[in-house]
Amino acid sequence: MALVVQKYGGSSVADAESIKRVAERIVSTRRAGDDVVVVVSAMGDSTDELRDLAQQVTPLPPPRELDMLLTAGERISMALLAMAIAALGLEARSFTGSQAGVITDSAHGNARIIDVTPGRIRQALDAGAIAIVAGFQGVSQDTKDITTLGRGASDTTAVALAAALGADRCEIYTDVDGIFTADPRLVPSASQISRISYEEMLEMAACGAKVLHLRCVEYARRENVRVHVRSSFTDREGTWVHELEKGTPMEQAIISGVAHDRSEAKITIVGVPDKVGEAARIFEAVATTEINIDMIVQNVSAVQTGRTDISFTLPKTDGTTAMATLAALKESVGFEDVLYDDQIGKGAVVGVGMRSHPGVTAKFFSSLADAQVNIEMISTSEIRISVVVDQHDVDRAVVAAHTAFGLDATEQAVVYAGTGR
Fold first, then answer.
1. Of the candidates 177, 197, 210, 246, which has an alpha carbon nearest to the alpha carbon of residue 384?
2. Burial class (CB within 10 angstroms; exposed 0-12, middle 13-18, buried 19+) of 385
3. pLDDT tens digit sequence for 36-92
4. Under 8 Å CB-to-CB from 312, ≥6 apart: which residues?
């Protein structure tokens, strides 16, 4: 008997019929002899609808109350799923994140998991029941308030529970057949990957691949949780994410995938005095607002003026906060201006194979040049090359790079529900 944690996204439980179909899959797993813990997202676009409702009431809802509102979506879907399982003859017990023992810090809207104490989940399993847990939420260790973990973080809930319970695997069910070499909504010829390393998946998630939440992959790597990404609409094998043993053949010798992200903006600080400590002052101020910065580029200082320009990318949602923070620094640091551009996109090629294959950068940039895509910023790691381009060029950039590295498949990928999660 194995212990399996299954997570179902919003598109998989979008309506009553979908919930009943998911219940049948869960019951089938349980009747095959495995213990099952299920993590479930809110139905369809419920979370977005609740957020819009809050915005209609007030443009600045208190973070504590917004978290209280948003967690209602998962509570609805977990209860309905438990009812559907009961209708099939098995016992299911639903739990909120707090009841499941998901303990977080107190950062409303983007809390991080500190610990998981799944005592009630184990009791349910020992009693022969299927445990169903509301994803995306927990309880603050300090304030005891309900918290949310950030958009898409039901994946993280599932992996955290799998680690705490010592589960044999964590299955992430979505509306595509697994992890692909690019987003199949943008590149229908994307190829499915049968297995991928934590390292590559981390880079792809960080660069915008939305099939798995970034913190979910980080947690899985740290706790060595085997993750199986599959479609809830078919019985196809899907994609395994785990630590690959040395000598394991990769899906593609050089590049595993092409990722993209349209959710970032670029800030350029013009005319920063080229003195020791000025960049530190700027980024320390930004850090106090808990903004995650991605790419950073500093130009060579102009000899005549002794000044330089610093550009960095960040989530669009943090743009207003960052601009206000930098405006407050302008006089003390002495820079000339701050420019903001939210019409950008990011594209990246990822693959462990590039460590031993020269010419990857040249091929990537040549493919973008052939597609008439201008590069604004460049960032690299050992297994990733990322570029910032104009938002209108993102699609062409991704398709061009995908074709250039020979990732196109003959069979078109299928998107079963169309929401991406």
1. 197
2. buried
3. 999 999 999 899 999 999 999 999 999 999 999 999 999 999 999 999 999 999 999
4. 266, 267, 293, 294, 295, 296, 297
> What interhelical angle do 46-57 and 63-70 show, nearest 10?
140
Residue 71 CA, chain-centre distance (Å), reads: 18
- The number of angstroms, rounded, from the C-alpha of 211 to the middle of its chain's C-alpha atoms is 7
* SS (HEC) of the chain: CCEEEEEECHHHHCCHHHHHHHHHHHHHHHHCCCEEEEEECCCCCHHHHHHHHHHHHCCCCCHHHHHHHHCHHHHHHHHHHHHHHHHCCCCEEEECCCCCCEEECCCCCCCCEEEECCHHHHHHHHCCCEEEEECCEEEECCCCCEEECCCCCHHHHHHHHHHHHCCCEEEEEECCCCEECCCCCCCCCCCEECEECHHHHHHHHHCCCCCCCHHHHHHHHHHCCCEEEEECCCCCCCEEECCCCCCCCCCCCCCCEEEEECCEEEEEEEEEECCCCHHHHHHHHHHHCCCCCCCEEECCCECCCCEEEEEEEEEHHHHHHHHHHHHHHHHHHCCCEEEEECCEEEEEEECHHHHCCCCHHHHHHHHHHHCCCCEEEEEEECCEEEEEEEHHHHHHHHHHHHHHCCCCCCCCCCCCCCCCC
Residue 8 has a CB neighbour count (10 Å cut-off) of 28
Tell me what pLDDT residue 301 has: 75
Global pTM exceeds 0.85: yes
Q: How far apart are alpha carbons 285 and 418 in whole angstroms? A: 39
